[in-house]
Amino acid sequence: xxxxxxxxxxxxxxxxxxxxxxxxxxxxxxxxxxxxxxxxxxxxxxxxxxxxxxxxxxxxxxxxxxxxxxxxxxxxxxxxxxxxxxxxxxxxxxxxxxxxxxxxxxxxxxxxxxxxxxxxxxxxxxxxxxxxxxxxxxxxxxxxxxxxxxxxxxxxxxxxxxxxxxxxxxxxxxxxxxxxxxxxxxxxxxxxxxxxxxxxxxxxxxxxxxxxxxxxxxxxxxxxxxxxxxxxxxxxxxxxxxxxxxxxxxxxxxxxxxxxxxxxxxxxxxxxxxxxxx
Length: 278
Hints:
By secondary structure, this protein is an all-alpha fold. Helices cover 75% and strands 1% of the residues. It has helices at 2-32, 38-60, 69-78, 80-94, 105-133, 139-153, 165-189, 193-207, 225-244, 250-258, 262-277; strands at 213-214, 217-218.
């Protein structure tokens, strides 16, 4: 029952967050010349996804929406290829090699929508469920691959919003590679906040590429040397994700996910102490 409900929520999040705003907005503009406020709809989706994640973690007594100083340091190291990629993109904007569109309301909303709803749908809910209900070494790489594959494939729906097939395929491959890195970081840190922050920041920088952007989506690509640099970084994401999830780390990952939240651990400690005293 819980599994079916979780899958239902994931499907709804994906459909609403990606297909519905683009489809309704595209059809309304094409046939009715009517503007649909899909950015505002995206913000609502992000808020609903965040509320669902909070409720989900509260019911399952999990601590995946918390981040300690140690977790932040680990995540920064693990996410280093992505962080470097963000810095390189920012430098490209600053030097004029790419057109800098600026930080707009549209960029903020789309980045929030993706950074929150995608991490909820593709990492937080499915991975935490698997690690809670099916904690096996064999499920770790399989879960990472499947969720990342879906994460990449869903970007093909950007064609509904006017993205060319070539660009959609490029985005899908990049998203798959980034997904492998994000799921690896989530599994190694047991916190979804680092990937949400990194995902949001990466999308902010990416969506400010105003030279080939329409309606908040990067619609075309010319494959200059800049795009090839991005592809090198995508390969680095994939390799880093695979290394973080290498077999020698599986037991460490399972041990981390067996740990109970601090509140529960404290309660158990008090009970043991009381029993010893009596």
